[in-house]
Structure to design on (178 residues):
């Protein structure tokens, strides 16, 4: 009897220590950005969201994000500009087709969370923090957040005089259990 009780305790502990694994649903997610171009806000999106998300609000140390977006999908609503952004001096999609975020920690912050980790664009990796909220339904979990980066930190666009340096990014990531 003692052995059965021990086995139940160990199995229960194993399942509660492991965060639930989710898969992003690209078609239901949004990766948006805004940057000043010629002094005017220019908006765009990225698609091709893939990766693995592990999330358990009761055990944040077992939670993580490892996700990518496909830079070939960049869409600002102007085909010529999108093609220009795919070139070497901007995103160089021939060499670097993906933007990747890998979390190193997730912390609770009041009613929201902060994912700290590494963002890689064009083989340049920088530490960032992404504040986010979580909404659950029966079928999915939605992570929403916003953050800001400097495009020059990642070697995107060089010293363009007409394009701003700061990029505002907003995320709505829909994910389902794997």
């Amino acid at each position: 009897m003692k052995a059965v009780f021990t086995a139940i305790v160990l199995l229960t502990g194993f399942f509660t220590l492991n965060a639930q694994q989710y898969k992003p649903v690209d078609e239901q997610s949004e990766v948006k950005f805004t940057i000043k171009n010629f002094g005017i806000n220019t908006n765009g999106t990225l698609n091709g969201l893939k990766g693995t998300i592990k999330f358990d609000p009761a055990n944040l140390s077992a939670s993580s994000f490892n996700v990518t977006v496909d830079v070939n999908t960049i869409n600002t609503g102007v085909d010529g500009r999108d093609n220009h952004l795919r070139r070497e001096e901007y995103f160089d999609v021939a060499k670097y087709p993906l933007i990747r975020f890998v979390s190193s920690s997730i912390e609770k912050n009041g009613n929201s969370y902060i994912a700290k980790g590494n963002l890689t664009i064009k083989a340049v990796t920088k530490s960032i923090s992404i504040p986010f909220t979580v909404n659950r339904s029966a079928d999915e979990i939605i992570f929403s957040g916003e953050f800001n980066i400097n495009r020059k930190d990642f070697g995107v666009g060089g010293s363009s005089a007409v394009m701003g340096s700061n990029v505002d990014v907003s995320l709505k990531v829909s994910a389902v259990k794997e």
In short: The chain has a mean pLDDT of 91. Helices lie at 2-17, 79-85. The CA atoms of residues 53 and 65 lie 5 Å apart.
